[in-house]
Amino acid sequence: MACGLVLFWMAAGSAADRTRCYLPAPTGAADTDRDTFADAAIRQAGALPTESLGIDASSMGGDADWARYMALWKAHSSEPGSVAVRRWLGLPLEEEVQVSARKGRTSPRFLRWRAASFAVVQTPHFEILTRASEVDSRQIARDLERIYWVWTQLYFPLWVGRDAAAVSLSDWSPEATTADEFLSQRARSRLSLRQRHRVVLLPDERAYQQTVSQRQISAASSSTIAASTGFYSDSLATSFFYPQADQSSIAHEVCHQLFEEATDRTRAGATTATTDAFWLVEGIAGHFESLRYGQHLASIGGWDSKRLQYARYQSLIARQPTAPIAELQGDRTEIQQRADLSLWYSQAILRTHYALDSDPGSAQRAMIIDQLAEIYGVDVADFASLNHPHSEKDDRVDRFLLVRDDDLVAAPITGSATAICLAACEITERGWDALPPLPQVRWFDASRTKIAGPSVERLISDAAQLDQLSLEATQITPAIGSLIAGATELRELDLSWTAIDDSVVASLQHCPRLETVWLTGTPISDEALETLAALPNLKILDVQRTQISDAGIRRLEDSRPQVRINPLNLPDSSESSGAGEQ
């Protein structure tokens, strides 16, 4: 990680590369002395938003208001049964979220749904028009409320409810009086925000695509909207989703929605469509995709954020230069016309992670919130922590992406990750031992690290989930074949420059979906050709610097003419220093 991160948090006595927030909890939830595994990991690795800026209740103005708001959430986490605190937050007496449902009568004009063909599910802050199942609808309603509360803690200075919260808690001194005692003396004191944010929930991906493709919904939106997994329309003030295991798109789009609809705008005409800092509009929503839950706590950011895995690969393996912010500038129309839109998104999100995660004690977090206030037209003059000269860091961003053993030990993860790329990072067995098993991982890339077969097998407890596995230039042995044989859904495999043998290639007969196989620099022989030639979906294969004969290569080319063989175009081995060179 960037040097500033290590130095700041060593001085503070802990380590953090992410921000933690509190979640609404049911009355019977365990207290903080009995954290879940996820809570414990989040608590160890994360800092509260106000801690990152050095804010506490003794601060002045808006900073003190923010600190008291966070202190109230901390009180709820410690004592979720406090009726006074639950009443102030608008939480039901027992459950973490109040959810009601009824049959739909009239839908918005852009939907044209017949009466009783949909349901309306309401929470304190959302109205969901749904054709999904009741179970899915209620679960997403619960998750939307969680997203809302996390967003208010992260971006309190921009939140439309900040003034109501400030007035209600202005006389409270958390050091002198508990939240329960303070609010119990004020029976009528509660946070009341009447606005609900509209969400349309479709039953599945097909229904979602058909709905968002309609002209009255997709107008003025990107041409790729039908291929998306979630969509927020600022013109319709509505988010569109369907139930899915990966909820990162919901977090992304609802983050957009809350910045558009739940900010305390004081300047008319502020719009994200014309700002040249559109990179931050998308970057902050991409950063919010990293939202993870425990029972009491949520975290945002961190080295394991899914978006950072792709950025890490681009930077450290593909050697893609990191784009400076000047190259990311442009308004929404300009950006959506870029030919490299996918790469632009990755770089914008990387830049936001870099500012918010790499050095929580610096002015970078304040700079980001202040820039967001400018984009959305919010007056944050009362927040002293945000009002000082800004300077963007000139550090090399690739150093932020370079994870080391100490980072994995200091910032533990829960094991829910679907993508882990630590390729070319300085990770030894000490670092790998700090990771829990990864039962949901679909992309695992440990290339060019000191990982051995037993660690791979421990981390990938269910190889059937794997889509991509990259172990180039690692310390694996032929014993890895048993794990690969179970990777029946594998599409891409890289075992280049390792000590595997023909027996490992034989295990690929159990991986019929394989499209790309890299075996460069391994000691495999012509014995492997029969298995490779039989892979039905094979498109790319590299077996240079192996013991496969030229005649064997020609036979393979004749039997599978549609396969690209040896695309790396390495120089003749006689011109190099031998196998193992990368």
UniProtKB/TrEMBL annotation:
Domain of life: Bacteria
Gene3D superfamilies: Ribonuclease Inhibitor
Matches recorded under InterPro entries: Leu-rich_rpt, LRR_dom_sf
Stated name of the protein: Leucine Rich repeats (2 copies)
